[in-house]
Write a structure and sequence with these properties.
Elements lengths: L2 H25 L11 H6 L7 H53 L15 H9 L4 H5 L4 H6 L5 H14 L6 H12 L4 H11 L6 H14 L2 H12 L1
Length: 234
């Protein structure tokens, strides 16, 4: 083998050694270090998929919450309006009652004298305070508290004892009338009334006689009325 052939063989071997690392590197992908994402993979990764059904459910939930809040606000506003209407109605009713009372004038005071009618005076009071029927028939002291200013001095002294005796118990109108009659009606009241009815004569007109008769009759009890009717029938 001559020198030219040997030199050519050596050049080919050197070329093969120099080209083999490049070829191996070109044919083999370099591994990516752990924990370092590749730029190509991060740029091409698709966003997380959100279904239309889940979006619709979220919208419906928000709408339901808003609707509940609106309903609650409407109910609160309606309750406020109703409360205001009740307060105004109560105020108007009190004003109307006070106006009616002023237009009627004041009822007579009861002084506890023997000449005063213990049935007619309570009737006058009830007619004067006719707007207070609920208080009159109630099981409390409201109606009696309205009547107290129309008691005379002597009767007021009795009422003070009456109030202290009851203490915390309600001073109902029924009990007040009952005790008032017991205190200020004479023990012989029925006998005196029966005597007046017996001695009653028609000395004037028929209207005057009837008016006086009805006055006595209004002050009487049922038993006395029955006795008077029996006397007329006899």
């Amino acid at each position: 083998m001559d020198d030219s052939t040997t030199a050519e063989t050596m050049r080919q071997a050197a070329s093969t050694r120099n080209a083999s690392p490049t070829a191996a590197h070109a044919g083999t992908e370099m591994p990516t270090p752990a924990g370092t994402p590749s730029q190509a993979s991060s740029s091409t990764m698709p966003p997380p998929h959100v279904s239309e059904q889940s979006v619709l459910m979220q919208m419906m939930q928000r709408m339901a919450v808003q609707q509940h809040v609106m309903q609650t606000q409407q109910q609160q506003f309606q309750a406020f309006l109703e409360q205001q209407a009740r307060v105004q109605n109560e105020l108007f009713e009190k004003q109307a009652k006070a106006s009616r009372q002023r237009s009627k004038g004041e009822p007579p005071k009861f002084n506890g004298s023997a000449k005063e009618d213990l049935k007619l005076w309570p009737f006058q009071i009830e007619e004067h305070f006719i707007s207070y029927a609920a208080e009159r028939d109630g099981n409390d002291s409201r109606f009696v508290d309205l009547v107290v200013p129309y008691l005379g001095t002597n009767v007021m002294s009795w009422y003070r004892e009456f109030k202290q005796t009851l203490g915390e118990h309600p001073r109902t109108w029924y009990l007040f009338k009952q005790q008032l009659r017991i205190r200020f009606r004479d023990s012989d009241f029925e006998y005196k009334l029966l005597s007046r009815l017996y001695d009653l004569r028609a000395t004037g007109t028929q209207q005057e006689y009837t008016a006086k008769f009805m006055l006595y009759l209004a002050a009487s009890d049922l038993a006395i009325c029955t006795l008077w009717i029996f006397r007329i029938e006899d």
